[in-house]
Amino acid sequence: MDHNKLALPVGTTLDRFIMRKQEDFPYATGELSQLLRDIALAAKIVNREINRSGLIDIAGAYGNRNVQGEDQQKLDVIANIRFIRALRNGGEVCTIISEEDEDMIQTGNDQGKYVVAIDPLDGSSNIDVNVSIGTIFSIYRRVSPTGRPGTSADCLQPGTHQVAAGYVIYGSSTMLVYTTGNGVNGFTYEPSLGEFFLSHPDIQTPKTGAIYSINEGASDTFSPGVVAFVKHCKDASFSARYIGSLVADFHRNLLKGGIYIYPATGKAPKGKLRLMYECNPLAFIVEQAGGRSSDGYQRTLSIEPKDCHARCPIFIGSQDLVEQAEAFMAQETAPVAATLAST
Ligand SMILES: O=P(O)(O)OC[C@H]1O[C@](O)(COP(=O)(O)O)[C@@H](O)[C@@H]1O
Ligand SMILES: [Mg+2]
Ligand SMILES: [Mg+2]
Q1: Most CB contacts within 10 A, which of 49, 247, 250, 252?
Q2: Quick one: signal sequence residues (predicted)?
């Protein structure tokens, strides 16, 4: 598909962009378009809550723990409610997998063709300190359009089956970045007009870069391959950048070139990040932008999810950097020099 078949000008509204892109698909019925609009609507509402979170009493912990064993922040809960409500009211989604809910959420839209996996609020540790946070979503089509919706066959599909994925970053500006498998486009929110406008058409991530993002606080439990790759980055005078909000670290590296790694650690032997609503959607986007994503060995999108909240290590970003990291992982016991020579 020639992504530029319909190169819409910067400043095109998201609504118009969705509508015009739908025309690329003669058999499109508009349901996915409507679903993307529902997500954009919820993002606008959550954006408003985030922007004024310091003024109203929505800062701090909610007092519950989620299925991950994490203390839920009030904004985690508010964002979760807002997105679930928008997806339920929109009517296109039969089942939702949310980071904040242990079980799959059946919306009651039994005719809904889509399953959505969502991280309503990403970067929870940064909520109260005014650092960029986000929302991450992944969309699948039901495998069994008739019959009981939300079966595990519908919900536990590999990332290669995603029909769309994206994220919202609530930062110095608020942006929505998404793909439907035909390139990646970014839209910036203009609050006074209540509209998202095309600001980053057809995003291509640089093939390489000089930024590495990893929480070195856990480095004493990194595997030899990760240790060797981090040393390689330092020897190459790369810049270390780590915000602690996956969406924000990913977005920076997507635009500037770089690699984000959340490896297996002593505390998180399977990695910390969740396959269905963190790793898969960002892997779909980075691949559509010319980058790469794996667990150090296997392509992220081909990993078979065992359950809704399955975790996996992630190495994601510029093609060359991820390949280099994979070479170190493959040769965990080989001397660094030999590994460098072979990459
Ligand atoms: O504090 P750590 O271990 O570096 O983990 C930070 C990572 O955890 C996360 O906060 C996990 O996501 P949630 O905030 O959605 O739970 C990522 O955004 C971030 O990259
Ligand atoms: Mg997250
Ligand atoms: Mg979250």
Answers
A1: 250
A2: none
